[in-house]
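input
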Amino acid sequence: MQTTIIKPKKLFHWHDLQEVWQYKELLYFFTWRDLKVRYKQTFIGAAWAIFQPVMTMVVFTVFFGKLAKMPSDGIPYPIFVYTGLLFWQFFSSALSDTSNCLVANQSIITKVYFPRLILPISSVLTKLVDFGVAAAVLVVLMIYYGYHPNIIGVLMVPLLLLITFMAAVGGGLFLAAINVKYRDVRYVLPYFIQMLMFLTPVIYPASIVGQKYSWILAINPMTGVIQSARAALLGTAQVNWTLISISFVATFALLAFGIVVFKKVERYFADII
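output
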């Protein structure tokens, strides 16, 4: 009788990506499972993916747009804030779910072997589906306010989604790895995400920050994503390709860092989870 011993590698290897592709059916299953579990026995079903950003847009429009008179670079505040919320909620919700994906699937991890990278990737893919549903509201708002993006603006959306996807996966891998050992991550993360939103031009334009402190916003890769989304889809400004390049490099570095930490801790998942 032959015994096969599976040992996780300390460092990332291209074989890991090949293995994820070999288990693509399992990746699809986890993604579909998470979607069904989230909307099972709900009253309005998948419409929750629309309800959350729309209600947030309404609240922000009333308090920040109407009462606080927050500037919006000449863009109607509802569509201004919704464009930012669309990408921000994809990132924040994916980061939150991914950080807990290993603990939530501990019964599977301790019994069956499969590429562990599948779990965080499936968590982010689930939120990508929610993004697609919620994007329908942005189309309605663009028609209502008379905004018509050019072909370049439409083609930029996949690039912005790729940057957001890498940021969510990279940050999620790091948080998921340390959450296995330190469970207080789930208590700290909501506060961190809330603070990070105020460091991201979601409810205000980046122009409101002076040139002296603009570099602080540029460090955050979601700044480039949201600013570029508004420029590309609403056509109110030139696309800042330098800012997009900085965001892409920053998210790639975050993804690489997340993978390294994840692979180092992977060998202990089944023992300490």
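quick obs: The two ends are 31 Å apart (CA to CA).
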